[in-house]
Inverse folding.
């Protein structure tokens, strides 16, 4: 395990490659951003919009997937206030046992701000069962629900006949997932190649006994459907020079978005501005930490180091303290929801801990073998 020379990204992130100088893809991308002509990009965006005029039979210019989080709130407002467009907001909501009151309130605020929102809620029984299957098979409960989250937007775009889909960040550029890079920095039609969505993404669900018809909300439209509907996904993050976790949170907070009020010790979330609408993504961040040696605190800290707001050493202290943090309460409510015992949860997590990076003591406490910022 090696760390980026500049930030605290280890080279264990899947599909990410460091430069020869030992710089991670996100830092490399950040360097390139310093030379971008943002006015030129804005003009490219205007040209793009001219190529997708509102259809005479439609009342919307584009569709934006929203969760009531900081990124989607910022996108929706920017599109309407800056460009004067009328977006349809598409929200795939969680079942009542999963969604937080804060998440519900945040969607309500968007509606109060005057947006048209279409809300879709897949059948809760299949949602719950597929989540359990995914956890037991991959130690990642979100395998099925992410499929639904990603699929809902193009599915609705086809149904409402709105070809232009605006998406937030380009995972190829911002996270260094090279498989999803499109023809240009803003072309999002390659999103289908990301791990969650790529070939045979439903196979494990079919093997688990789900009927293909039950899985319709989990089906990402195939390339021929994209072509037929003329769908174009565009990453909005590519056009916005100040697109970042913290800027988006500030912008959305000023427009009514409610943040988390629990401590970073419960969530590993230093500012409490991510995953506002549910609590179990925090479990996944903890598991990711045990698999790859970096969690949610690392993502925050890296951005802050790049922006020069904290030093690498200050970052190390924060990562040491908060990476992998997850409240017992969230773990208990998750186990209760999918119907497994706490012991089974930990057995499964322990079996998936990366033993090169961590050591599980006799007391079952998991300890780092590596040193944050130095590696192994
Ligand atoms: Zn870096």
């Amino acid at each position: 395990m090696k760390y980026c020379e500049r930030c605290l990204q280890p080279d264990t992130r899947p599909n990410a490659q460091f430069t020869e100088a030992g710089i991670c893809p996100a830092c490399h991308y950040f360097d390139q951003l310093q030379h971008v002509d943002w006015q030129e990009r804005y003009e490219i965006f205007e040209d793009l919009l001219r190529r997708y005029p509102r259809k005479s039979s439609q009342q919307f210019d584009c569709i934006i997937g929203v969760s009531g989080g900081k990124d989607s709130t910022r996108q929706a407002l920017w599109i309407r206030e800056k460009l004067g467009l009328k977006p349809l907001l598409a929200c795939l909501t969680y079942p009542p046992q999963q969604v937080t009151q804060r998440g519900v309130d945040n969607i309500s605020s968007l509606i109060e701000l005057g947006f048209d929102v279409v809300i879709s809620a897949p059948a809760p029984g299949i949602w719950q069962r597929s989540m359990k299957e995914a956890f037991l098979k991959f130690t990642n409960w979100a395998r099925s629900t992410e499929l639904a989250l990603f699929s809902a937007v193009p599915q609705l775009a086809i149904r409402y006949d709105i070809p232009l889909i605006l998406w937030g960040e380009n995972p190829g550029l911002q996270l260094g997932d090279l498989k999803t890079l499109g023809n240009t920095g803003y072309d999002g039609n390659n999103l289908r190649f990301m791990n969650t969505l790529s070939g045979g993404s439903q196979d494990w669900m079919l093997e688990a006994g789900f009927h293909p018809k039950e899985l319709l909300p989990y089906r990402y439209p195939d390339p021929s459907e994209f072509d037929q509907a003329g769908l174009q996904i565009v990453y909005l993050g590519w056009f916005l020079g100040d697109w970042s976790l913290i800027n988006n949170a500030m912008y959305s907070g000023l427009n009514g978005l409610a943040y988390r009020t629990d401590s970073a010790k419960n969530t590993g979330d230093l500012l409490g501005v991510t995953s506002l609408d549910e609590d179990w993504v925090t479990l996944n961040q903890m598991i990711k930490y045990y698999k790859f040696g970096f969690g949610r605190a690392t993502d925050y800290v890296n951005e802050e180091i790049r922006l020069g707001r904290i030093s690498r050493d200050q970052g190390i202290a924060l990562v040491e303290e908060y990476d992998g943090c997850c409240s017992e309460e969230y773990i208990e409510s998750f186990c209760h929801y999918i119907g497994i015992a706490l012991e089974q949860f930990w057995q499964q997590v322990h079996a998936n801990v990366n033993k090169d990076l961590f050591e599980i003591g006799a007391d079952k406490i998991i300890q780092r073998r590596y040193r944050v910022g130095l590696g192994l």
User: Anything to note?
Assistant: The first strand starts at residue 62 and ends at 65. Residues 262-368 form one domain. The chain has a mean pLDDT of 91. DSSP finds 16 helices and seven strands in the chain.
